[in-house]
Design a protein that fits this description.
Elements lengths: L1 E4 L5 E6 L8 E8 L5 E7 L6 E6 L4 E9 L2
Antiparallel strand pairs: 1-6, 2-5, 3-4, 3-6
Length: about 70
């Protein structure tokens, strides 16, 4: 999913809440430049099904959010 983060956001939170708590999912967030190329990355990759990435005072712009089935 591509998410637009507005100017002046104090916090942006990306949550992955799985219906199957036995799954092992990972959450990856890329900041995109004007051409859509990733320029920064954050991830949450625990052994759990639910993951979270918090960005404090993120730059305004587009972010690509991916969920990955690890196992």
């Amino acid at each position: 999913y591509v998410v637009d983060v507005p100017e002046g956001a104090a916090l942006t939170r990306f949550d992955l809440d799985s219906l199957d708590d036995t799954a092992d999912l990972d959450l990856i967030v890329y900041q995109l430049d004007a051409e859509g190329t990733p320029i920064a990355v954050w991830s949450s990759a625990t052994g759990a099904a639910d993951e979270r990435v918090d960005l404090a005072a993120p730059e305004a712009g587009q972010y690509l959010v991916l969920a990955d089935v690890y196992s």
